[in-house]
Specification:
Length: 241
């Protein structure tokens, strides 16, 4: 069994006796003398992904242990290697973390005022930003039964990976290149070519779905006109003079 011995000394300070704590040690009851406090240990068990999109909640979980006592709480902070935000919980969720590189720090405290080493983890909050140019396709007026191709470009203007899938389900239109899934690194591009091939007269519209919340879908419009064929035959009423 261990017990704590605190030694005091009365001193005279400005005419008033004051007790000063000179020493606080842990002793065993078997006569072996002072026993040093074993500091607690801490381990981070959950951290955000190394690349976390902006707007994602950042969750941290940890576990603290103390071999000769108990953990009474923790200090944590973001981007401060001297953490001082106190909690008795073993997890925290941080919202609206700014884009860029970050480090999370946490430290355990035991019931004998001992502190663990500081545990930390690094992660980056990335910006997912999509550019689409042009934002719409106008095929104008063409003959029914003919076709016309126009293209647009998807660009990743952010710092994270931009992922989605280009699809359409419209009559008179088809994607002739650039369809399907895409995963663009920063500054990466995907060119998509759309064909307007109307089979009947009229104005026809379509929306090309880019499959990513940060990308605005591309609207398409085109008009088809019937082909007028003109035939000329001799008029039987005309007589050669």
């Amino acid at each position: 069994m261990l017990f704590t011995v605190r030694l005091f000394k009365r001193v005279l300070l400005l005419g008033a006796p004051v007790c000063l704590l000179l020493l606080s040690v842990q002793c065993s009851d078997d006569g072996t003398g002072p026993v040093a406090n074993v500091h607690p240990e801490i381990e981070l068990t959950t951290c955000p992904e190394a690349s976390t999109p902006q707007g994602t909640d950042c969750e941290f979980h940890w576990q603290g242990t103390d071999s000769d006592g108990e953990v009474v709480g923790y200090h944590y902070d973001l981007d401060d290697d001297s953490p001082d935000t106190w909690t008795t919980a073993t997890c925290v969720t941080l919202q609206d973390v700014a884009s860029g590189q970050h480090t999370f720090y946490v430290q355990a405290k035991d019931n004998q005022n001992g502190w663990s080493t500081i545990a930390s983890c690094d992660f980056e909050v990335t910006v997912v930003n999509c550019g689409v140019a042009p934002g719409s396709l106008d095929f104008g007026s063409i003959d029914a039964g003919s076709s016309k191709d126009l293209s647009f470009v998807i660009t990743n203007n952010g710092t994270g990976t931009l992922a989605g899938a280009v699809t359409e389900s419209c009559d008179h239109y088809q994607i002739v290149s650039g369809s399907g899934s895409y995963s663009l690194e920063p500054a990466g591009t995907r060119t998509v070519t759309v064909r307007f091939a109307p089979t009947s007269a009229g104005t026809h519209a379509c929306t090309i779905d880019l499959g990513a919340a940060v990308c605005t879908d591309v609207s398409c419009t085109g008009t088809a006109v019937d082909v007028v064929n003109c035939g000329v035959v001799p008029d039987s009423r005309l007589r050669e003079r």
